Amino acid sequence: MSDNGEHAARRGLMLVLSSPSGAGKTTISRIVLDKERGSGLSLSISATTRPKRPSEADGVHYQFMGEPDFLKRRDAGEFLEWAEVHGNYYATPRESVETALSAGRDVLFDIDWQGAAQIRKASPDDMVGIFILPPSADALRERLERRAEDDPQTIARRLANARTEITHWNEYQYIVVNHDVDESVGKVLAILKAERERRQRQLGLDGDIRQLLDDLKTMG
Q: What is the dihedral of CA 123, 127, 35, 33, to 10 degrees?
């Protein structure tokens, strides 16, 4: 907001998407990132001790590491959040996220409710939480089975865990029921657009407003 048309600098935000396994948060995250290419939104690459699936690449989908290395970095305070999910550890490296936010870039998180709770506690003003719900229990089971990357025992465990995960829906600012992926993506993009304009994120706005008022005063 100045004579040359520039706007006040903005602090980046953490767009956190959570859901039970199979509800669609990873698919939605991928499409949102693609549509927001060049906007300053990047994916937070989580570290995990989970074995790599055939469709995944190290450093692209996750930073895969052994449990001893993970625990060493956790104890050194190198993670913004960490959690144990389905018998494996997950975490968000702290330094890269802080660097992005300070530079006015946004970071997208595809994490579970435990990680989201830690981020919310550590940085509530920076976090925008969206919980993705499946349209029904049958739809959730069907999506897990259609994914064909987990054995029946793992699918059963994920469905059982979904009951606990869904109870945390009311900890998030926004809820999206994923009836249709394109519709859900549109809702997430609308939330992101609005949150980028939130007053508290506009750094230096107080000074710009004072200058505007002073300029108007000289005109009157």
A: 50
* Residue type at 57 in one-letter notation: A
Tokens of residue 74, six digits: 């956790």
Please check whether residue 142 is in contact with residue 50, taking contact to mean a CB–CB distance below 8 angstroms.
no
Q: Is the pLDDT of residue 131 over 60?
A: yes
Angle of helix 152-166 versus helix 137-147 axis, rounded to 10: 140
What is the Cβ-side half-sphere exposure of residue 69, based on CA atoms within 13 angstroms? Answer: 8
Q: Tell me: pLDDT of 184 over 90.
A: yes
Domain boundaries, the chain: 14-39+106-219
CATH number of 14-39+106-219: 3.40.50.300
Reported pTM = 0.81
Q: What is the pLDDT of residues 83-127, one digit of tens each?
A: 887 789 989 988 889 999 999 999 999 888 988 999 999 899 999
Give pairs for 70-73: CB < 8 Å, separation 24+.
Answer: 73/47
Q: Provide the β-strand partners of residue 130.
A: 17, 174
| 39 HSE (CA, 13 A, CB side) | 18
